[in-house]
Amino acid sequence: MFVDREKSGVLLFALVAAFLLAGVGAADAQMYWGTRPIGMGGAFTAVANDVDAIEWNPAGLTTLTKNKQMGFDINYEYHQYLFGDFPYLQPQLIQKTSSNEFGNGYFNNTTPTAPANKKFSEDWYHLAIADGYVNPLVAVGAAFTTQDPSNQLFKHGTDFQADLSAAGGFANIVNFGGTARWVNFDPTGKGKFDFDVGMLINAINLIKVGLTGRNLLGNDEPLVVRREVALGVAGYVMDYATVSLEVTKVFDGLKKLNGPLYQPKGTFVFAAGAEGVIVKLLSLRGGFNYDEISGARMYSVGLGFVDKHGTIGYSFQGSVDHVRDFTHSIQLVIYYP
Question: pTM score, two decimals?
Answer without folding.
Answer: 0.81
